[in-house]
Structure formats: structure tokens, C-alpha cells
């Protein structure tokens, strides 16, 4: 074998090794696709199976995706009524977000490959909603003081997150539903003064940002809560003000009846995908450059100059790819729902639009995301240039590796609901039968009955999840 053939073989072996390494570090599959079995079980409502699938993946609790593991585990345990166990995992998620420190090694690797190579730290709304789930668990466990602590943590976390973006504030800068939840917890703990303040903060946030940014108006139930707590505190001025503003009079109650606060988690939140800009340049005889952007529907080619010998070769190949994250919406099957009790109907009013918040958070950080993606592209192009200086063919291999490893971070908390609605309804002492009516396409109605045992003055909580979805869009 002559030296020229040996050199070619060495290049081919090296190229194959580099390509194998690239495929080991990167995959075309998104995070959602890699966890297809879990997603299938969860969306089908087979929560016990989804829980078992999480348990089988022990490495996830220690690896780069451990925050997602803790959050997903917390949700599936809550849905099985295991509220204390759920909070153990959600507390681990909270601790991770508090203790998370950037690793120089993982940052460097992510610049040479893609951001999936570093630990997932969570989107802003995800790290905030950890506390919502914990607060719900405490309310179910009849621990209102602990629920208040979580609601406070929620708002403190949101404030700290927004302090990072002094020059560009996020639209998701306050959480109306968090204030509402805090008010519920305070009132359950018989602290009607702080309950009124929390309800007023919730009302102001719905008015100032939620209605315009996320399409969620002030729930009528919140208006009733404001009137009631203003009256209970003896705040006559505030009561008169809100009665005029809401155009309704507060109906005084002689005594506190037992009641049910029903939370409806409707649908499934969005899933991360990616979009990319790709260049493929093949110089030499008949060479062309191709520009592709599937997200924009662009695909066109243009001629490039030939190499000096007119023959072309491996060294004439150049690939450039830069990827960015995007969300795919999962439209909920049910559009509205209500509860029926003792001949009365109570609408489940939307209080949190998680889908809209998720899209808003990603859009608000898109400039920061583009900066990171372009920095990653610059580092990869510098590595390719340095290799081409040594060997054109190996530079082409590096170009291919760079394109193969380029990937957006498609991880996100995929067991969140599309939206959260709620209703507060009076109960009778003893046994109560409540009918949930959900309305789907073509006004089709599905019904499910629940039985609740209530003691005098007791506040009960229930969480119901409708996981039906109309698919991605």
C-alpha cells in the first residue's frame, strides 16, 4: 500500500471516528421524542405506568436532566394522591434551582456541541410553578401555613428572576394566580387581613398584565373573594369601592358553610422543538451553495466558484447550521367546564394560562438565546477554520461534525397543564355529590361525578386533570 493510499485511509478512519463521536453527542430526536413512552403513558392518563417508567430511569435523577426528573416525579405523585411524597421531589427541584451553579466544563462542551450537554436549569415559569404544585399539596394536606410559605417563595423567585433582566423586563413579571392562591391559603388559615391584600394584588395583576398579555381576565370568583374579605376585615371604604367597581353588592353570610375549591388542570402545556438555519456549500465542478430554513419555508441554491483544479473534493464541502428553540402548542380538547351541585351551576374560571406564559417567556429571552447560539456558531467556525489551515479534508469533516452536533435545547417541563381554572362552591355538611361537566368540540359534553364529605366550616380542595389534547400545532 503506497503512502497516498495510506494517507487516504487514515483520513477516512479519522473521519469515521469523528462522525461516530458526533452522533454520540447529538441526536435528531427532541427531548419529547426521547421520552416517548413516558409521554404516551402520561397523556393517556396511565399515571401509574408513567410513574414506573420514571423509576426505571434511575440515571435521570443524577444526570443533566435531573431537574426535569424531580418535577415530572412530583406531578405524577400528586396525581396519584401521594401529596407528601410529591413535595419531597418538588423540594429537590426547588433545592436544585437554588443551588445551581454554572459549570465551566459543561459550558465549554455546550459551545463545542449544543446546550443539551449542560444541566437543565428550567425556564422562568417552570421554576416558579414548582411552588404552585407544592402549595396545592399542602392545601390538600390541610396545611395552609405551609401553602402560604410556598406562595411567598413563588413570588420571591419571580422577583429575583426579573432582577436579572434590568434592561429588558419580561412580560411575565408577576403571577396573578400566585397571589390568588396565597389569598386562599391565608383565608383558610383565618388570616383575612393578609387574604384581602393577596386577593387585591391578584386583582391588580390580572387587570394590569394578565388580560392583555395572556388572555386571562379577572375571575368573577376573585371579585367575590375581595368583597368578602373586605367585609370581614371591616374595610368599609374598600368594600364600597369594589362594590361600585364590580357593580354588585356583597351578600352577607350568617355563618361560614363548608366549601370546596376545585382546581381544573386542562390539557397539556407546550413542547419544545427547534428551528434552524442551514447552509450547505459544495464547491468544485458544478458546485452550489444551498440555503435551507424549514421553519420559514425557504430552500434555494446558487452557484459558487470552482476550485482551482475544477475537480472538487472533500475539502470543498462546508456545512453551517445554527439552531434555536421554539414551542409547539398542544391544543386542549375541552374548551370549558363547570360544576353542578344542588341544582346550581358554577363555572370553572381560567386563572392561569401556562401555554401563553411559556410562549411569552421564550419570546422575551429570544435575543439572549440568539446571542448564545451565534456564539456557539462562532466557536465551531473557529475550530473548523483552524483545522482547514492544517488540512482541508479534515476541516470538511469538522464542518460536518459541527452541523451534526448543532441542536437547540428542546428540554422543558412537559407534564404541566395548558391552563388552570378553579371554582369555589358551597357544600352541605356531610355527603355532597358534585358533577363535573366538560365541553369539547361541537359542544359535546362529558360528565363525571365526585363525592365529598364535609365537616362544619371546612374548606376542601380537589385537583382534576383533563389530559385530552387535539395534538400539536
Overview of this structure, please?
By secondary structure, this protein is α+β, with helices and mostly antiparallel strands. Among the domains are: 1-31 and 271-327 and 355-415, no CATH class; 254-264 and 329-340 and 426-473, no CATH class. Helix content is 49%, strand content 21%. The chain is built from 16 helices and 14 strands. The chain has helices spanning 3-25, 31-34, 36-43, 47-56, 66-79, 83-99, 104-112, 124-140, 144-163, 176-188, 192-213, 220-233, 236-246, 354-364, 366-390, 392-405, and strands at 259-266, 271-282, 288-293, 298-303, 317-328, 330-332, 336-341, 344-347, 349-352, 419-426, 430-439, 445-454, 459-466, 469-472. The strands form 4 sheets. Strands 9-10-1-13 form a 4-stranded mixed beta sheet, with helices on one face. Helix 4 packs antiparallel against helix 5 (66-79), helix 6 (83-99) packs antiparallel against helix 8 and helix 12 runs antiparallel to helix 13. The N and C termini lie far apart (57 Å).
